Known about the structure:
The chain is an alpha+beta fold. The protein folds into two domains: 21-212 and 232-282, 3-Layer(bab) Sandwich (Hsp33 domain), CATH 3.55.30.10; 288-329, no CATH class. It is built from ten helices and 14 strands. It has helices at 41-48, 54-71, 111-119, 125-129, 158-170, 235-244, 249-253, 259-267, 288-296, 300-306; strands at residues 21-27, 32-39, 79-86, 90-98, 102-109, 131-139, 147-154, 174-187, 190-204, 273-274, 278-279, 281-282, 312-315, 322-325. Strands 1, 2, 8, 9, 10 and 11 form a six-stranded antiparallel beta sheet that branches. A six-stranded mixed beta sheet has the order 7-6-3-4-5-12. α1 (41-48) packs across α2. The longest helix is centred in the N-terminal third of the chain and has 18 residues, at 54-71. The termini are far apart.
Amino acid sequence: MPETQTAIPSRQPSPTSADDTILPFEVKALDLRGRVVRLGPSVDKILRAHDYPAPVAKLLGEAVVLAVLLGTSLKFEGRFILQTQGDGPVRMLVVDYTTPGKIRACARFDAGRVAAAIAEGKTDVGGLLGRGHLAMTIDQGPDMNRYQGLVALDGKSFEDAAHEYFLRSEQIPTRIRLAVGEELSAAAGGAQHRWRAGGLLVQFLPKAQERARQPDLDPGDAPPGQAIHVVPEDDAWVEGRSLVETVEDIELLDPSLSTERLAYRLFHERGVRVFPDTAVSAECSCSRDNVANMLKSFSQDDRDDMVENGSITVTCEFCNSTYVFEPDKLASEAPPTEPLN
């Protein structure tokens, strides 16, 4: 008996979509799988927790989108950590994504150098991060080994760095688009600014692996005149990545363009199948209880050195929540359920 195939229902793309969601999709005719992420209140909460200069906030927002796009590929409970270290005005960015959709992030920067970079118009990735590296770490828990991939940062955008990572580490043809911007709206008391972000990831995953072959990596020390290894790209992937490259920032940010409509706009001629979306939220793992336990792990002499004006104050680098403790009551204090802000 021949196998019967269940027909996949078709419908028009939804005209609306919720912010802070990740929509997986598939273009079977081109052997493509991908995800669209739209961030509204979650990324705004992260970027407004600190008084970041606008270029730093935008850079951190791009890192958040990239971490969400990559972290949602985890098929297990764990964390995806994206971190940069460089010699530029922005010394470090850290984004922590915990499955199935919790995100937190922060940036460390030199305010004077950032101001100088803004004055000189050097607010791209190269101008702010300088030379360094981008580390992507997968943490499956205390009983499992961590996996880490490194990509050099030498003026490349986050998109370029991600493409190089997939070329060198995963060897999967991949294209990524990232966008971050401020939305201006009228509100009582004047105009209101809110950060928005969006991203698109598309990968070529044919059943026949030879169709996804890519050129050998440049060894860096090949003798002069050495022929460069060239592998013709599969026509399906050429079409797929070419469509991704047409996506404009406004399409990833515009709340009036739903994620389904964006996917349909790109791939309707070939047919695109969407799957249930996943919610994303900005949530920090800090708590008064956790901070108290951390302080208790220090020696009494160390805790005494932390006392200022009769109390110990700890501020979370991620969410900027502040916790204040009386030293002589630290051991017995019953922590409140909410942090002090």
